[in-house]
Amino acid sequence: MIEITNLHKSYPVGNRKLHVLKGINFSAQEGELISIMGSSGSGKSTFLNILGILDEGDEGTFHLDGTLIQNLSEKVAANYRNQFLGFIFQSFNLINYKNALDNVALPLYYQGVSRKERHERSLFYLEKVGLADWADHLPNELSGGQKQRVAIARALASNPKVLLADEPTGALDTKTSYEVMELIQKINEEGKTVLIVTHEPDIAEMTKRIVHLKDGLIINDERREPVKAVAHV
Ligand code: ADP
Ligand code: MG
Fold first, then answer.
1. I need a labelling partner for 223 at 20 to 30 A (CA). Which of 14, 36, 64, 185 fits?
2. Number of alpha helices (DSSP H) and beta strands (DSSP E) in the chain
3. 44 C-alpha vs ligand 1 centroid, how far in Å?
4. Rounded to an integer, what distance in angstroms lies between the CA atom of residue 138 and that of residue 44?
5. CA 90–ligand 2 middle distance (angstroms)
6. The pTM is what?
7. Quick one: which atom of ligand 1 is closest to the CA of 42?
8. Distance from C-alpha of 221 to C-alpha of 210, rounded to nearest angstrom
9. Does domain 29-57+74-223 have CATH number 3.30.1330.40?
10. How many CB atoms sit inside 10 A of residue 46's CB?
11. How many angstroms separate the CA atoms of 6 and 23, rounded?
């Protein structure tokens, strides 16, 4: 599903270079639930953005579902993103003036899905995240946890192969974080591959594999029995 070899990434800082990823080797199979751990600044988001074809490495290879991802035009990259990837962000990234249903439906609009099917699919996924009754509410009428569940429904609606989540619980309290993780675990149990960037050990422990980044390298990569997320703590 995902195959990364010898990935390097630097950012220009003034007239110097900040070497952020220093030779990452990583692969993920279909159905995995993986957390990427590491302290702030360790390159987690940089890594996830490359996996999400939002950015490119300077060196190394990245295969997604057997396709070499390299030097893509913005249009081709957007096609792969639509086809393969769903994104979840710390700050939800919902559109404030659109209700929950329309937020879920918007990416489908850009993918050319018909109005009727957009509506049906969006409702289906809102139901899946437990928010069918909130379909016509605006984001500012929803709690943080509800907003993130709308964002998860939006990510699922185009039926991507992989969900990529950058600190999905970073803006939520513990109880709400565990609710979101409960949902993510359920989605994974239904077969979806999920990668979560987090710096919170309790969140990482709810995944089946913990990949630890430090100083631009993977220093640990361990498969394990996940802790079951229980929301009512
Ligand atoms: P993390 O998500 O683990 O906190 P990031 O991948 O966001 O880490 O950042 C890794 C390092 O790269 C940090 O030192 C950050 O300041 C730097 N960095 C990230 N993005 C850019 C950028 N666009 N330009 C310059 N430096 C960047
Ligand atoms: Mg980050």
1. 64
2. 7, 10
3. 8
4. 31
5. 9
6. 0.95
7. 3
8. 6
9. no
10. 21
11. 4
